[in-house]
Amino acid sequence: MQNPASANANVTVTVTATATVSDFAELPATASHGPLRIEYRWVNERAGDAPIAVFLHEGLGSIAMWRDWPQTLCERLGMRGLVYSRPGYGLSTPRPHAQKWPADFMTAQACDILPALLDALSIDRDERGRMWVIGHSDGGSIALLYAALHPEALAGAVAIAPHVFVEDISVESIAQTKQLYETTDLRSKLSRYHADVDSAFYGWNDIWLDPAFRQWSIAGEIASIRQPLLAVQGHDDNYGTMAQIDTIAARVPHAQLVKLDACGHSPHRDAPEALNEAIAAFVLKISAS
Question: Which residues form a coiled coil (predicted)?
């Protein structure tokens, strides 16, 4: 769940016991945020000038939490992959502990942070026109919003277990996750993937449990999506029901849906072969048309 600058050279960093080599892009301050340092990594770079797939992680995700799935999928698709940790996550600039994400935080990611990162990495208009966004959970919602906001700058989008509106099941599961975080070793486990684990966790948890967020919906915004769109959901997802991607189909009639059996909220971990097959079939069909 939950502006141009030059990228720095490779830096070796350590999050608890896990060593990770990452690059960093510096994004200048805007009206909506201060200066940001964004952790990113390229995968399958040997694909040369192949199209780019940008991976947008879940609300508690980061580069490290994707593990090797972006690499595996990019090799299957013959694409390069750009994986990054959103502000507040991984090794990117932490969220100040006193700051709460606003209700439209995912829209800000789609209309501000991601375009600024692409500028910082000198990804030009032609490359963006061939680009795919692939997002999971909150990242799936950001992928939908990016596709709606940038109709000419994308080849297509894949939304995996996205959120289009807030359901009771989502709030209940997120409340349970907060209890686990505060009473079990979940905090310790997550600290392997985030430099400031409380920044990552409470940034996501606080906004999703805010009563004002219950009215959040992007059903209207996504109706403007014109690019090819694949939406994937597991039947056993405890963070959302099939109503999420059924709403996408109602608002974006050309969208293709895939509903996976024996699969929870994380298809790339629960059913990676079925997910990869569905994405590859969709992307390759679009590319051949």
Answer: none
Tell me if 238 is assigned to some domain: yes
User: Is residue 226 in a domain?
Assistant: yes
* In-domain check, residue 3: no
Looking at residue 45, which CATH number applies to its domain? 3.40.50.1820
pLDDT tens per residue, range 83-117: 999 999 999 999 999 999 999 999 999 999 999 99
CA–CA dist 289, 287 (Å, integer): 6
3-state SS, residue 13: strand
Place of tokens 């906001």: 149
Q: What is the DSSP string of 163-203?
A: -SB--HHHHHHHHHHHHHHHHSTHHHHHTTT-SSHHHHHHH
User: Does the global pTM surpass 0.85?
Assistant: yes
- One-letter identity of residue 141: S
**Residue among 155, 147, 74, 70 nearest 115 (CA):** 147
